[in-house]
Amino acid sequence: MKTSVCAVICAGGKGLRAGFQQNKLLVSLQGERVLKKTLSAFDFPLIDEIVVSAAQEDFAEISALCAAFPRTSVVVGGATRSESVYNALKTVQSDIVLIHDGARPFVTRTVIERCVQSVKAYGSGICAVPASDTVAVVKDGYIVNVPNRDSLTMIQTPQGFYKENILYAYTRAFENGEVCFTDDSSLFAVYCGKPRLCAGERENVKLTYAQDFASNTARCGHGVDTHAFGKLQDYILLAGVKIPSESGLIAHSDGDVLTHAVMDALLSAAGLRDIGFYFPDSDKKWKNANSMEMLATVVSLIADKGYAVKNISVSIQAEKPRLANHIEAMKTSLAGALRIDPTAVGITAGTNEGLGYVGEGKGIIVHAYVLLQ
């Protein structure tokens, strides 16, 4: 007879240490919400059910997210992690329960399987990795003791138990008013016996602080745009900067050819459609539209995919007007729109040596290269 397995996912945190204005599990990471990545890790045949504990204020949003995972139910958590786990445990139907922090989205199937095997063999399975740093006991700012690192281990989740055992431990703890445990293995040790370790993985990190959400994933993109002179006005716009000119650039919007190239570079790097898809010239609402406002929309689109601009390089080819005196203003404007330091913006301008339509002064072409992180 198959031993059934349930994953309890703790998702009731508030993300205070990360400095977010919302539950950190609802923040996008590499284009996908953290909680969805965590649930996906447990969405394979070994797991018979998933129970997610959520704070009341996030209950509706988390329930909607969990709807994509048919074997998943959501319960209202408590004021502490212990209360949230206890509430979830009381609804579990399976024989084995794996308790996991929702903020560990990089857990692998191998670790999960290893945890279940340990429960079956030893009655518990606590994922852990050996301590790699020296750990010190500190008092009043001074080191008072340095334990032997060889005897120390870093505890992770999932932590697996037979449901009847861990539920018994939680019930006793709450009856005794002893619920100040930082993890489930500590509670199990008090009421059931010595927890058994099993091998975790160093990649199975817990997202706690804002920097933990930064990704080493980089995406590059290239955008190019060109506009012809001919509009009856005495200036052009480049990166929102008004530059005196004999005539303006012809376009459906305000003709900011630099900003349009940057927008396409951003969209390309994020794997999205081009600006014509999001701002079609067949739509009257984009007639004479402010391109810097359109750029703000694109920045939001790439943020929704989990990316931000790291740096950008722009090359302008224009026989006229002369642009050297306006480069710094363009850099400052573009940096503000992209939420980066001006030192991360490079803008060069050159002529086309009299060749082609640019050299003949008929138009301007801009190439933009962007790196997203």
Characterization of the model:
This protein has helices at residues 34-42, 59-66, 81-89, 109-122, 163-176, 184-191, 257-269, 275-278, 291-304, 327-338, 356-359; strands at residues 5-11, 28-29, 32-33, 49-54, 72-76, 96-101, 124-130, 137-139, 142-145, 153-162, 197-199, 219-231, 235-238, 241-244, 248-249, 309-317, 345-350, 363-372. With 373 residues, the chain is of the alpha/beta class. The model has no long low-confidence stretch (mean pLDDT 91). A seven-stranded mixed sheet has the order 5-4-1-6-10-7-11, sandwiched between helices. The protein folds into two domains: 5-213, Spore Coat Polysaccharide Biosynthesis Protein SpsA, Chain A (Alpha-Beta Complex), CATH 3.90.550.10; 219-372, 60s Ribosomal Protein L30, Chain: A, CATH 3.30.1330.50. The chain contains eleven helices and 18 strands. It is elongated, with a radius of gyration of 28 Å. Helix 5 crosses helix 6 (184-191) and helix 7 (257-269) runs parallel beside helix 9.
